[in-house]
Amino acid sequence: MEFPNLFSPITINGMTLKNRIVMTAMHLGYTPEGKVTERLVDFYTLRARGGVGLCVVGGCPIDEYGSMASMINLKDDSYVPGLKKLTDSVQTAGAKIAAQLYQAGRYTHSSMIGGKKPFSASAVRSRLTGETPRALGLDEIPGVQDKFAEAALRAQKAGFDAVEILGSAGYLISQFLSPLTNLRKDPYGGSFENRMRFGLEVMEKVRGAVGPDYPIIVRLAGNDFMAGGNTNKESKIFASELEGVGVDLFNVTGGWHETRIPQLTMFVPPKAFTYLAQGIKSAVSVPVLASNRINDPYIGEEIIRNGEADMVTMARALLADPHLPNKVKEGKTGLIYHCIACNQGCFDRIFRQKAATCLVNPRAGLEGQITSEPPKRKKKVLVIGGGPAGLKAACTAAERGHQVSLVEQNDRLGGQLLLNKSIPGREEMVVAATDLINNLKAFHVDIILNREADYAFIRDSAPDVVVMATGARPLLPDIRGIETYGAILAWDLLAGKAGVGKKVVIIGGNAVGLETALFLAHQGTISPEILHFLVTNRAETWDTLEELTNRGNKEVTVLEMTKYAGKDIGGSTRWTVSTELKRLGVKIVTGAMALEVVQDGVKFEKDGVEDTLLADSVVIAAGAKSEKTLSRDIEDLSSEFYIIGDAKEPRNALEAIKEGYLTGLKI
Ligand code: SF4
Description:
Elements: E1 10-12, E2 15-17, E3 21-23, H1 38-49, E4 54-61, H2 80-92, E5 96-102, E6 119-120, E7 134-135, H3 141-157, E8 162-167, H4 172-177, H5 192-210, E9 216-221, H6 232-244, E10 249-253, H7 274-281, E11 288-290, H8 297-305, E12 311-313, H9 316-320, H10 324-329, H11 347-351, E13 380-384, H12 388-399, E14 403-407, H13 429-442, E15 446-448, H14 455-461, E16 465-468, E17 472-474, E18 488-489, H15 490-494, E19 503-507, H16 511-521, H17 528-536, H18 542-550, E20 555-559, H19 571-583, E21 587-589, E22 592-598, E23 601-606, E24 609-614, E25 617-620, E26 624-626, H20 631-637, E27 640-643, H21 653-666
Parallel strand pairs: 3-4, 3-12, 4-5, 5-8, 6-7, 8-9, 9-10, 10-11, 11-12, 13-14, 13-16, 14-15, 16-27, 18-25, 19-20, 19-25, 20-21
Antiparallel strand pairs: 1-2, 17-26, 22-23, 23-24
Helix pairs in contact: 1-2, 3-5, 5-6, 6-7, 12-13, 12-21, 16-19
Bound molecules: iron/sulfur cluster.
Iron/sulfur cluster binds next to α9.
């Protein structure tokens, strides 16, 4: 077998898992009132059928203080019957299931708990909520710890195979552990030994409640990534102490929610934080799970084979493809839809209090509502356009049994997704296209490249159904001098069809504008391989290395007419893009209206004052407009006709793929 380590069973305090793949807890928003819903049951049951070893669900609030109403609740016995339905269904489908015990402390917003003040180790303001919690009184501490134990017992009663204590990410246990948030002068503060006390006692109480033969997992930050906070050194000591009081498995993740080190975006390289799990593994003798950005079975296999960790978590990876474990087992790794860490369907929606879905899997969260049935009549389907919407429509229709052809006027499939190939940190968007293409081939879609679908082509193809997914074209704003002085379209630049001089002004601070700025600002910086070579050979000083990594050979300025740049980038990624742009020295001028492209730059107006930015090259990133010139012809030629994706209305890939999917199901 190709993945002997990933698929080797493991027993954790009597709980035998059939493989080493764990779907770790993520907030999904499928339980608006905290009670288990059919939607949640359907979601996890499908993942269990897809072959995952263990699902951890949650966070599950242990009390009424550290929670949002929409989290899977464990705070009292009224939730147990619903939870029992969930555990029964997941176990019947072949997986084990654990509940994550959640208390957020100062990460709780007072508005979530009826205006009450959240508590923490000390009254230290939270950057996440903008609020200052109150310090727990010494006499209150045992009561909070008891809530963990009571919730663990409840989870056990509800049929969970294990519990996971959430001791990472800056939640309550981490708040006691960190010198940044624990300023106490009593036995729970001061020395590291004292700061560990709260978490260790929680663990002891949970163990006391569930008994010796019940698996307890602790999720730990391998490094808080907070200046002056705990690092892997302290985490190792804490882990070793926790093992002493009965932990059976450590789930090691990265830093706090307040850290300025990206944790979840595409900028984080795959398996970036596995070294933290490896650190914990060196300090304990129980198994260790590696977390964050493990989206591919080959990476999982390598981690376990190399002894970096014993198991791997794949949360977003299984949101993206619930069948990933079974596909691996059945030798169909080429058909996996990988999580690309875009966060567009999951975290960005969750941060806006919406239910999670997935860019590459529009069915995520709608498992009970959307099913793919074979068609009543097999039809001849012609999809025009090989961007994300067209690819998904073609795949879905072909998978259901239709005879599908896809015609693309370029020599490659992927559409706008391919533009990301040259943007540092965005390359994984291309994986979404590659995965769709692999599935297209597996379902025998006839792919026709380098062919424009004109009237004659469509007529001669004689399709029963035409799906027009011809995408969009860049929008040329009405600014004087654009054509005279040869302004360049951002799409042409990213596609390698044009080059620029040293000083560049980009008109438009939307996602494409900022990503183009990233692309340009990286030009002339050293590659990760060269950096590694110079570091390992100590060839340059740290200052020089920093300079070589952060300064390229372009001077880039972005002009954005609204108050904020990057509004169309999701919240989880926007701040990492602006940090990166700042690091690379890109200037962003907001509230600035471009008036005219002139020979040596761009005239603009800001706050009623006109000015000129000097530039060797001007790049236009002013949005897109639908490409639908073909539509009238098609209406004449086909009785069943759909316009989807950007051809209908320019939007993001999440919307385009969803529309392609729903169209493919409709035919
Ligand atoms: Fe991954 Fe993006 Fe899907 Fe979230 S929306 S699971 S980040 S592919």
